[in-house]
């Protein structure tokens, strides 16, 4: 390095102090960091296996393994199954965000983010926003494969789109639970363990995979209370018809509630972690 | 007197471990403070407190007169941090890393790109700019890390062991960068395990051990305390060790020590002593396997200041004990 005689120009670009007064810092910084997250996803596409192969695998498994027994006809079953699987897989995908963050946050670059004058929660919000692409991809694959094996939207495209957006919104809010776990746990494996322990009763304890009248009373009570049941009912209602207003309201309330509780907790855990 | 940063009485505990036991550090604007100490002395903890990444349990620290706890947000506008482990993103390219930092500092995208290009060229990373950082060598990572700290033109830069693990040529590069930063009016806190590095760069040095400052002064003052340069000698024939020790004692005026079997070391005051030693060894017909003049290493410094080496909680052996073996015993 022989050219180290002239230091970089120190006047050409605005200093940190001038920039800081600009508004919407959280949004701006989160978007920049979501871009980082997207670039990483693009460079390591193997991380997308859970949102590309798993939706296909689940359709095959549930439709052909259980469909005959549960509904008598696989086509009947597919119509109720597919919206439910869409919800189930996005919920699983939200656990993965917590696992990834647990690993990511240990890297030195988070020390740099923390020592910079940016909105405190921006590194977390950015990562979660960047992971929305995973939900989009998942839903596209889920619906695409569903169509290939005979699933048909019986309402209208706008309602179907609303179903997709609502499912994504719920998954986005639920992600903060796993971000919190990711901030508290020491190892990615622990996040996975805790995450999936919470996932199974949430995703399987619903009324869409099997008829609830075969279940014991205590399990029926859980299925009724389970927010994922409401999300699955909403998605099904918007895609193949049925009651929507009640479960949709329930979904939104749950989503907002989960976000309101777990977002601050996750940010606090992030800031306390050293 | 105005300080660019100042820490007073910092205490930090991690469970039962006391990382900092009341440490004072300060540097005036545009100077380099070298913080010299072994692994585990508390260097990184002190840096992390000054960089607002950790809160002290006791004591206060200010940067540009702003409290690192109360005014953390403002302090972050003034500082740049280069950690012991490169704080850059492995999956992003060099350019992407720097542009991201620029955008987080609220530069417009075009300005962030221009700044990234400028810094990459300055750090001789232009050719690697489009490659993911995980393909970089250790030296390239350090340079990118330094570049990342400079994107926002900070007033104070913390360099936590910036040359650990670098080969001597790359170390000199980093030194050159630090010198040009200081020429630019930036204040630098440099932690290091090498007296040589602190001597080359720092205006003042604080030597820390077990979370306390055990010595503070200019490099000249410190070297005076630890005996300046040392002359190391290893005669080819170990049987001539005692004769060699006699010669060194006569030249340097003090009895040499024998840190390891077959070698001698003695503090020397001026360059003339080296030539004198060479002449007299030659006259005595003693063939030399190794003869060198060097600054004391961290172990010498610690031995002089604390009576034990860096590795040694008193009496557990290692460097401390070796040093106490005086020439005569070693020769026998």
In short:
The complex is a heterodimer of chains A (274) and B (332). Chain A is 76% helix and 0% strand. By secondary structure, chain A is mostly helical.
Protein described:
The complex is a heterodimer of chains A (274) and B (332). With 274 residues, chain A is mainly alpha-helical. Chain A has one domain (31-272). Chain A has 12 helices and no strands. In chain A, helix 4 (74-104) crosses helix 11 (227-240). With 332 residues, chain B is an alpha/beta fold. Chain B has helices at 43-50, 72-75, 94-104, 109-122, 138-150, 168-183, 195-201, 219-226, 241-252, 272-283, 298-306, 319-324, 327-331, and strands spanning 3-14, 17-28, 32-36, 58-63, 66-67, 79-82, 156-160, 187-192, 204-209, 212-217, 229-235, 264-268, 288-294. In chain B, strand 9 (204-209) and strand 10 (212-217) form a beta hairpin. In chain B, helix 3 (94-104) packs across helix 4. Chain B is globular and about 75 Å long. Chains A and B meet through helix 1, helix 2 and helix 5 of A and helix 3, helix 4 and helix 6 of B.
């Amino acid at each position: 390095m022989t050219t180290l005689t002239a230091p970089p120009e120190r006047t050409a670009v605005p200093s940190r102090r001038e920039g800081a007064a600009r508004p919407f810092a959280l949004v701006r910084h989160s978007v920049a960091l979501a871009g980082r997250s997207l670039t990483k996803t693009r460079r390591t596409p193997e991380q997308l296996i859970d949102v590309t192969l798993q939706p296909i695998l689940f359709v095959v498994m549930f439709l052909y393994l259980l469909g005959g027994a549960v509904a008598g006809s696989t086509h009947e079953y597919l119509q109720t199954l597919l919206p439910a699987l869409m919800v189930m897989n996005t919920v699983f995908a939200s656990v993965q965000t917590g696992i990834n963050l647990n690993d990511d946050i240990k890297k030195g670059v988070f020390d740099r983010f923390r020592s910079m004058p940016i909105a405190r929660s921006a590194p977390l919000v950015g990562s979660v926003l960047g992971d929305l692409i995973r939900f989009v991809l998942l839903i596209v694959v889920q619906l695409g494969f569903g169509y290939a094996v005979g699933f048909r939207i019986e309402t209208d495209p706008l309602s179907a789109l609303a179903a997709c957006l609502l499912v994504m919104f719920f998954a986005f809010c639920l992600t903060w639970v796993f971000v919190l776990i990711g901030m508290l746990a020491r190892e990615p494996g622990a996040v996975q363990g805790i995450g999936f322990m919470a996932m199974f009763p949430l995703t399987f304890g619903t009324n869409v995979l099997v008829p609830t009248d075969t279940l014991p009373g205590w399990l029926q009570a859980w299925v009724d209370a389970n927010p994922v049941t409401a999300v699955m009912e909403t998605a099904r209602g918007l895609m193949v018809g049925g009651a929507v207003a009640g479960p949709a309201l329930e979904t939104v309330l749950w989503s907002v509630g989960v976000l309101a509780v777990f977002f601050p907790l996750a940010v606090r855990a992030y800031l306390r972690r050293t | 007197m105005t300080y660019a940063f100042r820490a007073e009485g910092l205490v930090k505990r991690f469970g039962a471990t006391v990382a900092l036991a009341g440490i004072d550090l300060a540097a005036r604007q545009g100077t380099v403070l070298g913080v010299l100490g072994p692994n585990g002395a508390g260097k990184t903890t002190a840096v992390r407190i000054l960089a607002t990444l950790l809160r002290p349990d006791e004591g206060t620290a200010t940067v540009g007169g702003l409290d690192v706890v109360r005014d953390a947000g403002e302090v972050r506008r003034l500082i740049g941090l280069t950690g012991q482990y490169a704080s850059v993103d492995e999956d992003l390219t060099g350019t992407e890393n720097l542009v991201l930092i620029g955008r987080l500092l609220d530069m417009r995208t075009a300005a962030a790109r221009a700044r990234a290009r400028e810094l990459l060229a300055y750090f001789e990373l232009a050719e690697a700019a489009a490659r993911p950082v995980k393909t970089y060598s250790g030296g390239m990572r350090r340079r990118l890390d330094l570049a990342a700290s400079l994107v926002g033109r900070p007033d104070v830069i913390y360099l936590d062991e910036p040359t650990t693990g670098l080969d001597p040529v790359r170390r000199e590069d980093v030194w050159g960068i630090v010198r040009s930063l200081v020429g630019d009016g930036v204040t630098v806190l440099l932690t290091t395990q090498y007296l040589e590095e602190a001597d080359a760069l720092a205006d003042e040095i604080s030597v820390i051990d077990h979370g306390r400052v055990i010595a503070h002064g200019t490099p000249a003052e410190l070297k005076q305390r630890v005996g300046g340069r040392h002359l190391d000698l290893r005669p080819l024939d170990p049987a001539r060790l005692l004769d060699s020790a006699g010669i060194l004692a006569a030249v340097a005026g003090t009895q040499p020590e024998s840190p390891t079997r077959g070698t001698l070391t003695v503090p020397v005051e001026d360059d003339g002593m080296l030539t004198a030693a060479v002449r007299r060894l030659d006259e005595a017909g003693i063939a030399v396997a190794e003869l060198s003049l060097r600054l004391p290493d961290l172990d010498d410094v610690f031995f002089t200041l604390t009576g034990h080496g860096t590795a040694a909680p008193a009496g557990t052996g290692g460097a401390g004990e070796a040093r106490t073996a005086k020439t005569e015993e070693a020769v026998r």
